[in-house]
C-alpha cells in the first residue's frame, strides 16, 4: 500500500485500489463489479460529454474509535441521485444497488479510511453518466454507474476558522432550471464566478436567488445557514437550491438537540443584521463558519472574522460527533460499512 501522510491530506484525487462499475443497457443494469482500472472507456458520442447528461453524489466514510467504519445517511444520497437522474431522463440506480456499491468500495479500500482522530475521511464519489454511440440531443441508450473513493483531510486543520465570501453577479442556476439536482452543468457554470472570488482573496462566492437577486441561495457549492439574535436557525428555501443532506441534518439537530427554532425561509441580503452567526454546510465543507460577506462596497461581518461563533461550534461538534460515532445518532442516520 502507498504510504499516506494522514495529517497532510487535502481534497485532491488519489488513486485508491478499487472502484465499482456497472453498465446499463437494453433496459437493465448488469451485476456490477469492483475493478482496479481507473480509466473509463466510452464512446466519443456519449451524451455525458456533449450535453452534460450526467449527475453525481458525494458522501464520506468515517473511521470510529473502535476501528469500525460509518456511513452517514447514505440512503439519502441514493434517493437524491435518482432525483437528479430523473430530471435529466437518465436510468435510475436502484437504492439497494447504490448502497451496496458504496459498501463494497469502502470495504475494498478500508485501509484508505483515515484513522480516527486525524479528522480525515474517505470521500466517495458516485457518478452516473449517459454513454453509447449517440449525437442527437436525447436521452442516452446506455449508462455507466461508478463509485470511486479517496482519502481526504479535515477541511479545517487546527480548528474551525471563519472565512470571507463575496456576492456574485452571476447566477448558478435558473429559477426553474437544474439548481435543485446534483448535475455537472451547474458546476461548469460556477467555475468562473468561483475563480473570480478566489482571485479577490475570498473563499468562494455566494449566489443570490436568480429571479430577484435579493436573497441568499448558495455558498459556492454548499448551502447557507444563519442564526438570528432570536436563536432561530434559518436556511434559504428555493426551487433552485441543491437540497443538502448536511443542511437537513442541521435543521433537525438545531431544533432537537440545541433547542433552536429551525426554519427554511428567505434570507434577504438587506436583513443580514438579524444574524449573529452564519455558515456554509455540505459534505465536503462540513460546517464552514462565514466571517464576513462582501456585496458591492459593503462588508458585513457576523460573529467575528477570526473566531467561530458558539452555536456554529455546537452544531459542528454534534454533527461530526454523530458521523464519527461518538454521539448517539438519530434513528437510521448511521450504517456500518465495516463492522
Ligand atoms: C452537493 C452540494 C451541496 C451539499 O450537499 P450535501 O448533501 O450536504 O453534501 C450543496 N450545494 C450544492 C450546489 C451541491 O452540489
From TrEMBL:
Transmembrane segments: none
Cofactor(s) listed: pyridoxal 5'-phosphate
InterPro entries tied to this protein: Aminotrans_IV, Aminotrans_IV_CS, Aminotransferase-like, B_amino_transII, BCAT-like_C, BCAT-like_N, BCAT_family
Modification type N6-(pyridoxal phosphate)lysine: residues: 182
Keywords: Amino-acid biosynthesis, Aminotransferase, Branched-chain amino acid biosynthesis, Pyridoxal phosphate, Transferase
GO BP term (any one): L-valine biosynthetic process
EC number in record: 2.6.1.42
Coiled-coil region: none
Protein family per UniProt: Belongs to the class-IV pyridoxal-phosphate-dependent aminotransferase family.
Protein name in the entry: Branched-chain-amino-acid aminotransferase
Amino acid at each position: 500500500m502507498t504510504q499516506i501522510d494522514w495529517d497532510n491530506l487535502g481534497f485532491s484525487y488519489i488513486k485508491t485500489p478499487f472502484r465499482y462499475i456497472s453498465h446499463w443497457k437494453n433496459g437493465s443494469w448488469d451485476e456490477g463489479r469492483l475493478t482496479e482500472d481507473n480509466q473509463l472507456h466510452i464512446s466519443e458520442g456519449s451524451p455525458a460529454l456533449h450535453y452534460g447528461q450526467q449527475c453525481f453524489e458525494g458522501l464520506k466514510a468515517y473511521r470510529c474509535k473502535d476501528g469500525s467504519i460509518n456511513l452517514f445517511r447514505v440512503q439519502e444520497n441514493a434517493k437524491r441521485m435518482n432525483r437528479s437522474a430523473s430530471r435529466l431522463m437518465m436510468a435510475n440506480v436502484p437504492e439497494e444497488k447504490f448502497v451496496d456499491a458504496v459498501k463494497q468500495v469502502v470495504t475494498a479500500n478500508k485501509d484508505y479510511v483515515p484513522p480516527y482522530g486525524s479528522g480525515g475521511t474517505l470521500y466517495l464519489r458516485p457518478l452516473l453518466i449517459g454513454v453509447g454511440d449517440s449525437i442527437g440531443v436525447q436521452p442516452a441508450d446506455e449508462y455507466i454507474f461508478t463509485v470511486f473513493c479517496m482519502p481526504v483531510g479535515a477541511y479545517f486543520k487546527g480548528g474551525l476558522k471563519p472565512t470571507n465570501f463575496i456576492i456574485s453577479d452571476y447566477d448558478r442556476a435558473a429559477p426553474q432550471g437544474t439548481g435543485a439536482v446534483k448535475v455537472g452543468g451547474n458546476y461548469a457554470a460556477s467555475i468562473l464566478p468561483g475563480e473570480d472570488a478566489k482571485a479577490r482573496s475570498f473563499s468562494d462566492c455566494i449566489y443570490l436567488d436568480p429571479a430577484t437577486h435579493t436573497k441568499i441561495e448558495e455558498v459556492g457549492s454548499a448551502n447557507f445557514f444563519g442564526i438570528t439574535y432570536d436563536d432561530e436557525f434559518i436556511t434559504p428555501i428555493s426551487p433552485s437550491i441543491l437540497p443538502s443532506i448536511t443542511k437537513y441534518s442541521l435543521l433537525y439537530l438545531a431544533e432537537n438537540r440545541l433547542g433552536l427554532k429551525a426554519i427554511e425561509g428567505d434570507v434577504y441580503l438587506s436583513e443580514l443584521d438579524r444574524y449573529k452567526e452564519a455558515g456554509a454546510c455540505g459534505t465536503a465543507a462540513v460546517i464552514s463558519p462565514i466571517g464576513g460577506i462582501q456585496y458591492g462596497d459593503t462588508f458585513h461581518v457576523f460573529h467575528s472574522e477570526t473566531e467561530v461563533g458558539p452555536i456554529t461550534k455546537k452544531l459542528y461538534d454534534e454533527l461530526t460527533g454523530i458521523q464519527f460515532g461518538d454521539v448517539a445518532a438519530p434513528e437510521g442516520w448511521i450504517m456500518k460499512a465495516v463492522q
